[in-house]
From TrEMBL, chain A:
The keyword Membrane applies. Keywords: Membrane, Transmembrane, Transmembrane helix. It comes from the Bacteria. The chain crosses the membrane at residues 49-71. This is DUF4179 domain-containing protein.
TrEMBL record, chain B:
Residues 24-91, 126-175 form the RNA polymerase sigma-70 region domain. Keywords: DNA-binding, Sigma factor, Transcription, Transcription regulation. InterPro entries: RNA_pol_sigma-70-like, RNA_pol_sigma-70_dom, RNA_pol_sigma70_r2, RNA_pol_sigma70_r4, RNA_pol_sigma_r2, RNA_pol_sigma_r3/r4-like, WH-like_DNA-bd_sf. NCBIfam families: PRK12543.1, sigma70-ECF. It comes from Paenibacillus sonchi. Signal peptide: none annotated. Belongs to the sigma-70 factor family. ECF subfamily. Gene3D superfamilies: 1.10.1740.10, Winged helix-like DNA-binding domain superfamily/Winged helix DNA-binding domain (1.10.10.10). This is Sigma-70 family RNA polymerase sigma factor. GO terms for biological process: DNA-templated transcription initiation.
Amino acid sequence: MPIESQISEYLHQEAETMECPPAVSKRIEQSYSQYVQRQRSKKTMKKRLISSFVAAVIMIPTAAFAAPPLIEMITRTPMTAKQVKMDAVGQAALEKLYRSYPETKSFEIIDASQLGGDPANASQGKAIQTSIVLQEKGAHGKMVRLDLNGITGEIEHVNQENWEPQEKPVISLTDQEIKSKVDDLINKLYGSSSKYECNMELMENSDQKTFILNYTEKGSATPFYQAFVQGNTISVSLIGGGPAPSVEGFFTTNGKPDYTADAFLNDEKLFSLLRMSPADLKQELAKGASVVEIAASKKISKQQVMDIIASTQAKKQIQADPHGGATNDNRTLEQLKQILEPKVLKVIEHKTETPW
Amino acid sequence: MQSESIYHVLTKMIEGDQQAFHALYEATYKDVYRTVSFLVDHPQDREDIMNEIYMQMWTSLPNYDPNRPFHFWLHGLVIRQVQRFRVKSWRRFRIFERIRVFSRQEHHWDQPTLRTDGTDPEISRAMHKLTDKQRTVIILRFYHDYKLEEIATLLNIPLGTVKSRYHAGLQLLRKQLVNLPLERKEKNNAY
């Protein structure tokens, strides 16, 4: 037998005796799952970067969970289009959107995610927030992003992008036209805008022309809806629905009060932990220190601050749940706290006048 | 698996479909594992390289041209990962050698496991005498039946280099096998 066939025969025989250890297969499978997860979160990140409006940074949520795109949440779980349609909250919101804007029926769900909860396993508890992004086909297709309160199903935030032709973006329209576009969006997705007084203002934002529209109820200090218009994007947030916080605008952005963190920082327990009055805290923050730094100067750790705020917010969350989806036990509380921590961290490390 | 269905599976895999991953893994892992085992002796290294190969596979899936044979592309991945691993372990070895020289400690290198069950121990031993580069060419030629031209493309080296490694490898094997005990030799020369 020539040596060539001998080698070939040997190699094939030898190969038959080689068994891939099951541990290897298991390890590779795990690597794949991790890869898929990373891919998904990268995708959501990227798309969120495109869709989330830069000026949304200066949103004014007084409701505890109403700051969706501002604070990028680490604990987001991606959802498939199918899961969105199975989800009660997602389904209701989609129906509303389709009714209000029939053309969106043909849009594709290009991204969806949940904060807290597990879309694949409803028994894991409800999501704090569900976000859905829909887009029309084509490079500059119309895009809508909805951020929904997972508990109440309310729309907390809407981003409407590319609804005007590229060559004539929404920001280039007249003030009157812009206002009627925003009115229309509020009327269709939230409810009537007519009982609110609207105050429209051009922001001192040197980089990009931005309008801010505050829809305020008569006699109320905080706006009920707040809209930002920039480029070809309209973004509306639901702000109202709760009492005005005792101290407003702990932080500022472009010299204007920034209400983003107020719901978290107006916390009696935090004030007593820091041994400060709310006014003092606001004053210290105005100097450019973060809450963590202020706490550190009093020998209070970041973890302590985070615990206090997360626990207040988690308790609020449990009370706010009218259907009893979140039960009032320690385990639920701890879980909620954990989900909230990245959000809290962002707030307590934030410095005034810096972008969120 | 046919090329067309492979392409379908690959597209699904890029989308993150677990089932597609399983299908592709089932269809390929034996071939990949055996190739790696021929080229790399130590079980732990094989395991690491396998993992690297598959990770590399799904991250570079978008680069795969469906008009070209999948197995050729896959073997390219295998070869590159094995080579990468060798460079890495060579670096480790260099550092290790230096430490050894300074500390004057004896180190026992792991002996490659020789398989004797059912296969020819002489060829096995002879195989281990080949250099890594020769062995790669021999495996691609005799286990995967690639032509020398294809091996040159896979290894990204000139055809002349492939030929010289191939002949040197064969010669070494022949020499080893010629030194066999008499009865074996007779059997080997039975043609």
